[in-house]
Specification:
By secondary structure, this protein is mainly α. It starts with a helix and ends in a 10-residue tail after the last helix.
């Protein structure tokens, strides 16, 4: 795996753990799955070529 995929996933999981310390395990699992799905969708959208970041042209 590439570093640009691993770093956001690890940082998001750490942030979710820190924020959700008082939340039940079911809610924590649902939020984690949704967050990872959003990260994956953003990465796939960026790599698809439909969105071009101006400084990468």
């Amino acid at each position: 795996m590439q570093l640009d995929i691993i770093v956001p996933v690890v940082m998001s999981c750490a942030l979710l753990w820190w924020v959700s310390r008082g939340v039940s395990w079911t809610t924590r699992l649902v939020v984690t799955v949704i967050t990872l799905a959003v990260i994956i969708c953003i990465l796939l959208f960026e790599r698809s070529g439909l969105y071009v970041i101006p400084w990468r042209e």
